[in-house]
Amino acid sequence: MGRRGSASGWLVLLLALLAVSLVPSCSAAEVKTSPTEWSLHLPLPNGVTGAESLAFDARGQGPYTGVSDGRVLKWGGSSVGWTTFAHHANYRKFPMCTVPVAPSEETESLCGRPLGLAFHRKSGDLYIADAYKGLMRVGPDGGEAEVLVASRSTSSTASTSTRPPAMFTSPTAA
């Protein structure tokens, strides 16, 4: 009986080793990379961080991006660089927004923080989702953005606070 138990133990061990040897070994898959000779690094102006979102208009201009001081910047090519395309209504009233005197984490509740951008294909309007100012819109030529739906932090003083937010699909879907 001792030999039988010993033989069956060896048989189980042999079958386990055979099963393990038949299982394909794990290996890391090769990571495909893109050639970088066609990439371009666009450094942002001093004192701002981003980009949280990038968008191109229907004319193929841009990119446009929101940055930590509340502005939306537009890339005008290497000869022009970044220019201010849009900002909220009170942007120029707060000196700390236009001249960086404190880290953006301390000023963004006043200056805004655009986190999402999308162009409406037909109108050319840019819709801006700002963490502090709410949903805003600016025309195709840029400038001061109009608040469509104020954020909760500003809704008590906003004229849109008395009506519920309108449901809408992506502005690029129209």
UniProtKB/TrEMBL annotation:
Chain intervals with Low complexity compositional bias: 151-163
Name of the protein: Strictosidine synthase conserved region domain-containing protein
InterPro entries noted in UniProt: 6-blade_b-propeller_TolB-like
MF annotations from Gene Ontology: hydrolase activity
Segments of this protein annotated with the region Disordered: 151-174
Signal peptide start and end residues: 1-28
UniProt entry keywords in alphabetical sequence: Signal
UniProt KW Isomerase keyword: no
SUPFAM superfamilies according to UniProt: Calcium-dependent phosphotriesterase (SSF63829)
Residue ranges of coiled coil: none
Keyword Signal in annotation: yes
One cellular component (GO) term of this entry: endomembrane system
